[in-house]
Specification:
This protein is mainly β. It has no helices and eleven strands.
Length: 121
């Protein structure tokens, strides 16, 4: 099983930036399709950004142009750079991984981290 550990969340003002990290200690992520997902208060979990094994990316409409997903296979790490943050970005952010390409369809992912909270006010 792949253990995923997120970090980098916090409280930030509107318009600010945060960089989330997700690491898989001792486990190679190179063959995994990976994504960032979030769940706001009282909302369903939703896809934010996706990256495939070759580095191609896809974003939710709400994230496109503001967020950037990237991966560092050598360090078994996934990142999400978030700029121009808005109050509606407030959520618990999760990284997820799977051996198959599910894009932003969060229900299909097998491996999940515990999440990191992002609060924008």
């Amino acid at each position: 099983d792949v253990q995923l550990v997120e970090s980098g969340g916090g409280s930030v003002q509107v318009g600010g930036s945060l960089r989330l990290s997700c690491v898989a200690p001792g486990h190679s992520i190179s063959r995994y399709y990976m994504g960032w997902f979030r769940q706001g208060p009282g909302k369903e979990r939703e896809g934010v950004a996706f990256i495939d094994t070759g580095g191609a990316t896809n974003y939710a409409y709400s994230a496109a142009g503001r967020f950037t997903i990237s991966r560092d296979n050598a360090n078994n790490a996934l990142y999400l750079q978030m700029n121009s943050l808005k109050p509606e970005d407030t959520a618990m952010y999760y990284c997820a991984a799977d051996e198959y390409n599910h894009g932003l369809a969060w229900r299909q992912y097998q491996h999940w981290g515990q999440g990191t909270q992002v609060t924008v006010s």
